[in-house]
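CHAIN AND CONFORMATION:

***
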Amino acid sequence: MSDARELIERYLAAWNEKDPAARRAAVDDLWTEDAAYVDPLVVAEGRDAIDATIAAVQAQFPDFVFRLAGDVDAHHHLARFTWELGPEDGEAVVVGFDVAEFSQDGRLGKVHGFLDKVPA
């Protein structure tokens, strides 16, 4: 499903966007108004909270980038994918697995994150 892959690539690009205004525009474009992001460390409900979560992760890992690690597996209104976070040209420090739920209009409604590898 190329549409799902393209949306997930845009999702990861938003996590990498350092300019606050551009990041917020990406969040507003990608996510529904009542969207939610949940992982073991955070519950972010709504676009403001999602944007703040991305900013906090960037502050914690300022020189790292998110990248897709493998294919996006999608059907109906769901997609699952593995991502990595680490130096641009280096080994991933954090690895996770997300399941995204798409809304009727093709935007992100919910993302459920799981952390497979985290720093000690």
